[in-house]
Amino acid sequence: MMFFKRMHSMPKMILSTAAKLHMLVAAALLFLSNSTAFASPKCGQYLIGSLARSNDTERLITYLEELASRDAINAQKVSHLVTAIQSGKISNPILDREALINIIAFTHRNELNRYIEDGNIDHKKVFDWAQRYLANQNSVQLIRTDTRVETKQYFQALEFTPVKAGEFTMGKRPHVAKVVLENNFEVMTTPVTQKQWVDLMGENPSTFTEGSEALITTFGEKVVPMLPNHPVETMTWWSAIYFANELSKKHGLKPAYNFDHLTWEEGTKAANGTLNIKIGMVKINSVDGNIYNAEGYRLPTEAEQEYLLQKSVEHMDYFNSNISTHAWLKSNSENQTHRVEESIPLFVDGNPISDLFGNVAEWSNDWFKEDLTGGINPTGSATGGAKITRGSNWSSPVMYSHPTEREQQAPHVPASTIGFRLVRTIHSSKSK
Predict the structure, then answer these.
(1) Which end of the chain is flanked by fewer CB atoms within 10 Å, N or C?
(2) Can you give the residue ranges of every domain in the chain?
(3) Phi, psi at residue 387, to the nearest 5°?
(4) Are the C-beta atoms of 233 and 418 separated by less than 8 Å?
């Protein structure tokens, strides 16, 4: 258990409140001027002690200012604080998941909780401070009503992390298969978010678009509501691969999917998640037609999906009792999606990847069939009636959140439980 030290007591003196605050803040600043000391887990033990007993609100603001000046909190965290105050409460800008994996964050979170839970805090003063801070960070503010202001600046970046090729046993008895993945590949660190989709496609197919973090943007005369950092969902499989192609083109890559010989069903389109095929078959843009050899972004094969899921939990014990700390499932989701990266990430090859389980299940590139396809770089069946989804979702019981669990969904049927993340083969770095 961690105990918080106080500064050495001073002789009793009769001082004004302002003088006390001035002395205490000066003491805190003097201590914090040593950046090495601030970087140590003990820094939080002294900071509040050095600010003891001045006005609760001023002490909280002073503490937040010092954390911000040392980058212990940033504009994204302050914007979360603004959103919380607008909903009538003050929440801790340092999340539980950060405190669980970082002793410095743990210390600061505990100290902030002492202010929030014990203090008589003036919400308006904290809100005003947060708005000034964000203004200084060149935030763009959206005025949504006369009294409601939300900050729009920091959104989940579209980031990829490398994954080493390897061998593994796919599936569970009696359906198992030995698989060899020859190519290293890169995978998105989160599912595609609503804002990432909207920025590229101009519309938002998602079911979940309302909440304290909701934003409204416009494309021409079209008004598009969204929860920017929540996973995009409720799109067909065809819409997902269309997005993959558009992202490839944006980044100067040859798209993975060839739509030249397709006819799309009238009245459907990718932007709103309804795209559906009428006639034809999608082809792969690679010399041999193999999805692993495509240059652009694509959906992962089922083998790649299970490989990621297995690697992410290979060092975990008592899987079913632990996974809810890493995933939004039926037991903790409150029947809705959540911000990506809000749950504790899992690690693959030493790199954090979020929402591999729960939040939204994820479309696979492969058609569903009962028997698994093993071998080198497997791609599953060439045709079928349903596509595979993996990873469980916000409505899944814990028992179905396992690396080997498989679901299927008709590719033309969207669902609020299904989203996707993209991968790309790393052609210049083949595993030996």
Answers:
(1) N
(2) 17-152, 160-430
(3) -95, 155
(4) yes
Quick one: pLDDT at residue 221? 78
Asked whether 233 and 417 are in contact (CB, 8 A), the reply is: yes
Residue 317 is predicted with a pLDDT of 58
Mind listing the pLDDT tens digit for each residue in 388-428? Answer: 999 999 999 988 889 999 999 999 999 999 999 999 999 86
At residue 304, φ and ψ (nearest 5 deg) are -65, -40
The model's pLDDT over 104-144, given as tens digits with 9 standing for 90+, comes to 778 888 888 888 887 688 888 888 888 788 767 643 333 33
What pLDDT, in 10s, does the model give residues 215-249?
988 877 788 999 999 999 999 999 999 999 999 99
340/188 Cα distance (integer angstroms) = 12
pLDDT at 393: 97
Q: State the number of CA atoms in the 13 A half-sphere of 376 facing the CB.
A: 4
For residue 343, with 0-12 CB atoms within 10 Å meaning exposed, 13-18 middle and 19 or more buried, which class applies?
Answer: buried
| Closest residue by Cα to residue 388 from 305, 290, 313 | 305
Report d(CA 32, CA 414) in Å as an integer. Answer: 53
Quick one: CATH architecture of 160-430? Alpha-Beta Complex (3.90)
**Per-residue pLDDT at 100:** 73
Question: Please, are residues 367 and 382 in contact by the beta-carbon 8 Å criterion?
Answer: yes
Nearest to 431 by CA among 312, 307, 345: 307
Element (H, E) at 134: helix 123-136
CB of 415 within 8 A of CB of 362?
Answer: no
Distances (CA, A) of 2 to 73, 82, 106, 107, 388: 22, 29, 10, 9, 47
Instruction: Give the HSE-up count for residue 5: Cα atoms under 13 Å, Cβ half-sphere.
Output: 7
| Two structure tokens written together for 97 | 């998941």
Short-list 104, 204, 158, CA closest to 340: 158
Residues of the chain with pLDDT under 70: 1-54, 83, 86-87, 119, 135, 137-154, 317-321, 428-432
Q: d(Cα 161, Cα 78) in Å, to the nearest integer?
A: 27
CB 294 within 8 A of CB 285: yes
Max CA separation in the chain (angstroms):
87
Q: At what angle do helices 103-118 and 56-69 cross, to 10 degrees?
A: 160
β-strands 351-353, 407-409: how paired? unpaired
pLDDT for 42: 38
Q: State the Cα–Cα distance between residues 362 and 375, nearest whole angstrom.
A: 23
Nearest to 90 by CA among 48, 61, 133: 61
